[in-house]
UniProtKB/TrEMBL annotation:
Underlying gene: Gm17949
Species whose genome carries this gene: Mus musculus
Record has Transmembrane helix as a keyword: no
Lineage: Eukaryota, Metazoa, Chordata, Craniata, Vertebrata
Keywords for the protein's UniProt record, in alphabetical order: Kinase, Nucleotide-binding, Transferase
Matches recorded under Pfam families: ADK
The protein, known as: Predicted gene, 17949
Amino acid sequence: MGLCESTLPQLGRALRPQEKDILRYPLIIFVVGGPGCGKGTQCRNMALKYGFYHVELGQLLREEAQRSTQRGRQIRDIMQKGLLVPTGLILDMISDNLLSYPKIRGFLIDGFPRELEQAKEFERIVGRAPNMVIVFDCSMETMVRRVLRRGQVEHRADDSEPAIRKRLETHYTLCEPVLTFYQQKNLLRHILAEEAPESIFAKCCSVIESLL
Ligand code: AMP
């Protein structure tokens, strides 16, 4: 899904054996779901409650996209079109974040993986699978409604209507193989994310506590 003409890294940096060793012990939880499913809010709450570090890829990318560098401009262009940034860049961001907090109990990686290549690359580069993959299930109508509301409040460039349509299409096209991949490893935990945030949080807590 990466743009071939971009100069953004297409392949992630391979980790050294000592770095892989550091990442053998903390809990690593991936959190996936379409735009507006509420994963960002729930990850923030879970991170606070369990002392996990929240790797918020969308937010880190939005920060990069604001820089007036060639890299910033390329990221901004991809995000405004509702496309995915190249896997290499994502993997480098994840490994840098994980290695910066070697003593932490666990990581919540929010918005990853968004396509099968990312899931496989993570295992190749980090040398292990996640402990769990939480999936926020939400109807298209709910997601569109939430994202449009957020767009009015936060003025996020990628919450415009054409970008949302493309983000949803990207999500629905690419997420199925990811879910199948983790279903086969018995790592998927589905959470119905249509209700009030407090009841979704209670469900998140019970899946997290099954790991502790
Ligand atoms: P989010 O805030 O999670 O909805 O992400 C906002 C945007 O960031 C997405 O539409 C993508 O352009 C980009 N993005 C976030 N996570 C990833 C990822 N794992 N792989 C590629 N692009 C991503």
